[in-house]
Amino acid sequence: MFLVAIMVLSGLSLSVEAGKNGTQVLSAEELAFAEAVGVGEYAYAIDKVYAYEYGEFEMELGEAWRGAGSAPAHEYAQYLEDEMTRIGLKDVEQEGFPVHAYNYGGASVQVTEPELGEVWLGAGHAGLPGTPPEGIIAEIVYVGLGTRFDYPVEGVDGKLVLIEVSEEEMYWLQYPLYEAELHGAIGAVVTWIEYQDVEDSVVTHDSESRTTIPAVDISHKNAAYLKDLIMNSDEPVEVKIWCDAEIDYDGTAYNVYGYIPGTVHPDEYIVIGDHYDKWWYGASDNGAGVARLLGMAQAMVASGYKPDRTIVFIATDAEEYGWTDTEFDWALGAWWSIFVQHPDWAGKVRGYFNLEGGGDAGATSVYAWGTPETQMFRKSLLKLIDSWFVSNEPWSSYYYRSVEWTEKFFSTWADGFSWGAAGVPVMEFGSWRSLEDSGYSYHTQTDTMEWITAESLAMSIISNGIAAIELDRAVIAPYSFQKRADDIQKNLNYDQLRLSGIDTSALDAALKDLYGVGDDIWSMIRSTRDSENADEINALLMSAQKTLQSELQTVGGYIEPMYPQEHYEDDAWFMREGIESLEDGNIDRALMWLSWVYGMYTGRWCSNENYQYLQVDRWNLDNFNQFWGRGRTAQIIDIWNEYDSLLQKKTAGDWNFDAEIASLWEKYGMVVEDLQNSVDKMTQTVLDTTETLNEAKALLSA
Fold it and tell me: 460 partner at 20 to 30 Å CA-CA among 106, 178, 246, 333?
């Protein structure tokens, strides 16, 4: 027997049910939602069709792909619109945006000389052209990682190349592929070293490349065979590559929206999002996400939940890829959604729930991931979520307590990054801690629904639903700004800032004030059960959140989300150490440090033309093709010529580095100037945010 009571749930004033022993249990609304999800193999609110046959097993492997703006993507967008309407969401519609649509029908590789071999399964890469219908037959040359140093002096004009793509050394496909183009290759056979960890798996990714020559991936086993054949054959080895791929530069992709209208604050939002484009069968990426989205929507409607704020369900296209010849070719649907289709939502969204993946077989627990502003809110939910799963079959027999993780910003690799860049708090609840070894490999043909289970999907749906309801019903937006202040300070490298001559006293003082007012507001939120100023307070808190996160979330080297100073902080450190090593005459140590300057770890392996185009121009030119990186990318400092000159001098035994030292010190000064500007920007952003929060605090105190 349970008593309905008004109590403080881990510091938040929300309506919940409490057992006689004080155990936290779900509110009546949350209980209805969880029961609507259900616990049986197919009994919960995920229809078997899209939970277990989403992978389209009856299709050929090539036909199973759903590239951005392709015919299969358009068909599935219509299916999603129909399904959202059937579920009972309101104002369901598709909203289009431009893409370089990728239509794919399969790929293969076959050795033709010195003797005909079997046809190997291959995979194209989004944004790259296909081959002629008859394929391309040519001699193939092994070029290792595909660096500028790996090519034979006679070149590879008119030939194919075999490349072992290494994310660790060459970052992504665009660098070795452009190097192949510059050396005259007409196509490439590739295998990705850090991927394809399941035997015979064949991987695909976005290419981020120029649309000039095709590249077809094959399994590690087949690549090893081909490499051995090339290296040991007395005759030239010829292969045939075939790839059925077509790019429509005037394509259109669609984001699909459905709503549960808010009954009190219809112009404030909680957004639940995932993407529906996929490679291969795409079960974990992102069939499970679609299943979670639709299952969560259906359970909310079926339970009769009437939200205070409008709950938006969004399925985006072009998360995997959406544009050619750009470093920022993925996660485009989310960027279009919040920055173009609905920019007025920024500052009005309480939170964005990212539903990437989920449902892994054998999962035994739940994680609560998010940015610092949501840390205290997410922590407050862990016992509540745990109480459900330890008390209900089938999870109670194996469930392990949940965990909380916090990161400064959401990864650029998923839709949540763009929502964070718009100033929206981002979070993700999902099932994890699998006791079974995964039998699939990311972005390969092994990612099938065999590795997704109903119980695990239900764990993800229920935990996200509980969190969304709690966020919706909270009287005051439950943001912990003091945790953002902590996180900023944690990511300041004070030793390096001091060595660069940067005075952080103003920023430190501003962060101290931000922490203080954030902590005060959180304490007030914990004890506030109602407030006649709630609407104004919430508007101020969301405005402060928008200012703080949208201004501080930048894209640093290698597409990492960073605070504004981090990229320059590191570059100043690496350059200073490198220059001082040169002054000491230690060329090897200097080259090591200089290789860590952003862009150079990969750039050192590339021809200058390659480096200039893919690193310097793509990053430093503010253009449309940067999409979610636009206006957020750190400046790449170009030291390729100095680095290459040092390599040549080392080879020649020339130890006069005066010219390189002078040039590098000059560029170091430019980096320090950017570093100072970024610290100044951060200081002003923190001051502006604190001013807004003080207004909210005054209203909370009234």
Answer: 333
SS3 of residue 513 by DSSP: helix
Count Cα atoms within 13 angstroms, Cβ side, for 100.
24
Architecture of the domain whose range is 101-249: 3-Layer(bba) Sandwich (3.50)
Q: What's the sign of the alpha-carbon dihedral 312, 313, 316, 320?
A: positive
- Sketch the domain layout of the chain as residue ranges: 3-99+251-473, 101-249, 481-701
Residue 432 pairs in a beta bridge with 365
- Three-state DSSP state, 229: helix
| Domains 3-99+251-473 and 101-249 alike in fold | no
Where is average pLDDT lowest: 51-65, 425-439, 607-621? 51-65
Q: Enter the tokens of residue 158.
A: 């008119």
* Distance (Å) of CA 625 to CA 120, 209, 319: 35, 13, 15
pTM of full prediction above 0.90 = yes
Alpha helical stretches, state H, 131-242: 167-170, 174-182, 220-232
For 35-50, what is each residue's pLDDT tens digit?
Answer: 888 764 333 334 433 4
Q: How far apart are CA 509 and CA 211, in angstroms?
A: 50
427, 410, 139: which is closest to 270 by C-alpha? 427
Tokens (6 digits) for 342: 């609905």
Asked if pLDDT for residue 32 goes beyond 90, the answer is: yes
Q: What is the DSSP letter of 504?
A: -
Cβ pair 342, 148 in contact under 8 A: no
Share of the chain residues as helix, strand and coil, in percent rounded to the nearest 5: 45, 20, 35
Beta bridge partners of 243: 107
Q: Judge whether 326 and 625 are in contact, CB under 8 Å.
A: yes
Task: Give yes or no for a contact between 65 and 245, defined as CB atoms under 8 angstroms apart.
Answer: no
- Quote the CA–CA distance of 404 and 382 in Å, as a whole number: 8
| Burial class of 232 by CB neighbour count within 10 A (0 to 12, 13 to 18, 19+) | exposed
Separation in Å, CA 519 to CA 407, 471, 486, 491: 19, 19, 11, 20
Model confidence pLDDT, tens digit, residues 319-343: 999 999 999 999 999 999 999 999 9
What is the Cα–Cα distance from 459 to 151, expressed in whole angstroms? 51
Sheet strands side by side (includes 3-9): 3-9, 12-18, 24-25
| 654 CB neighbour count, 10 Å cutoff | 12
**Tokens 């069968």, residue?**
281
Is the separation of the CB atoms in 137 and 240 below 8 Å?
yes
Does 1.10.10.10 match the CATH number of domain 3-99+251-473? no
Element (H, E) at 555: strand 554-556
Close Cβ partners of 416 (under 8 Å, ≥ 6 residues apart): 273, 334, 352, 354, 356, 410, 426, 428
**What's the confidence (pLDDT) of residue 6?**
25
